[in-house]
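Weekly modeling sync, notes
Attendees: S.R. (lead), two postdocs, one rotation student

Agenda item 3: backlog of single-chain predictions. S.R. asked that every request posted to the team notebook include the full sequence so nobody has to chase files. The rotation student volunteered to paste the first one in as an example of the format we agreed on. Action items at the bottom.

Example entry:
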Amino acid sequence: MSQELDYLSLRVAAGRLSRREFLGRAMALGVSATFANSLLTSAARAEGPVRGGILKGGLSGGSATDSLDPATFSTLSSIFGACWGEYLVAMVPDGGLENRIAESVEASKDAKTWTMKIRKGLEFHNGKAVTAKDVAATLERHSDPKSKSGALGVLKSIDTINANGDEVVVTLKDANADFPYLMTDYHLIIQPNGGKDNPAEGISAGPYKASVNEPGVRYGGERFANFWQPDKMGFADQVELLAINDATARISALQAGQVHIIDKVEPKVIDLIKRAPNLKVEAVSGPGYYCFNMFCDTAPFDNNDLRMALKLAIDRQEMLDKILRGYGTLGNDFPINNAYSLFPEDIPQREFDTDQAKHYYKKSGHNGPILLRVANAGFPGAVDAAQLYQQSCAKAGIALEIQRVPDDGFWSEVWNKQPFCNTYWSGRATQDQMYSTTYLSTAEWNDTHFSNEKFDKLLIEARAELDQDKRKNLYREIAIIVRDEGGVIVPMFNQAVDAVSDKVGGYVAWHDALMNSLAFAKCWSKA
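Predicted structure, as returned to the notebook:
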């Protein structure tokens, strides 16, 4: 069996077998998905990285208002951040962590004090040494509400931050066994003096130096000669990420060879791409989800009866079948699926129910149309999904008005600005991180304006609970509160679908899109 798996994994690395086909055969041989993925990683490495050339991406989520300040990263700038940024720790394909700038991370017995030993010999792009003071300053900046950092929610529990020699000691207000996972948040790029001097300068200790910064157009990076792990990342001479928000234009650029990797491939065109002999489709299940957000503090969505009516008036199965075409699973109006440990699997699945939707809509007292703003920039196929939603709402007597808004500017002008719109979340490393980033009342990116004292209290309690059974029960309570009282409608969890040219080596899909955003840092050009 071992020889057969090795053979199959090498075929994947060579582009002669799809990842999905490999996993299917591996499962048939009784191999776990985790072990199968590790074989793919090994095979990609065995193929051997090639140095030189340029690696190009055509990606969604670019906006003229983007910045290289990690605190305010948007979709595209965060992917570029993974090229030039370096982190304390990082996730690996089996769900664990690897130490990066932090050589070790150790906790006190009560999980309230965490000591991180900072690796010696690392260099920033400006030639300065990476120090414990830089790390402490980075955490200080992102935990300051004035920074408006997207990581603010996950850092709320920090009480003190101190740099002592080559160590950073963080004390928490409450115990948190998941603290190291919080440090994987993509905003927490370690910068000189924490970025307090010029956070948008694009300087860290990652494999590429930022050389081109044209927000909404393109980003570029050149290999950093003094990167501390040249055998693992930074193989191309250059990386270039083009902002191509239109899905059709991304595919055309890939087919024409203008780019080597694209993201957010719509399921309806996957078969078309598969027919091209020089292209591969890479799909991976994970914690990402597509959703519709309502501001809980803005009329008419400040009425929970109306929110419940809109949750019951969506035909999830139809949307899953017609929009994702099998590349996803049903959602249940909270942001957690079985990609997370301690997933509360016994919560009943919410169904499309016109009678109950009519009941809650009448109870809400609302009359007249409800405006939903939508753009495919929010998630692939969003406009079609909104039209399906409009039709299912009509069956419940709810007039849903759809306003299609431009993809360009969606993230700066619509998301987190308008009271009812579509969006997506790529998920986080832990349940606590996901909830703390998006639904904690004080989180900077609380994009449903959800505020619930019981939820906040339970989240802090779950964070400190070390008994896994008790913790799972707390997460179940948290999920039910969001499901029944929150402003998020989650019809489906999506597979992340990228398309890759055969001129790219080292691509192994895992966790989320673009190799968990590390594709351009870890892949190489065969051309």
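Discussion: group reviewed the output briefly. The chain is about 35% helix and 20% strand.
Action items: rotation student to repeat for the remaining queue; S.R. to check formatting next week.
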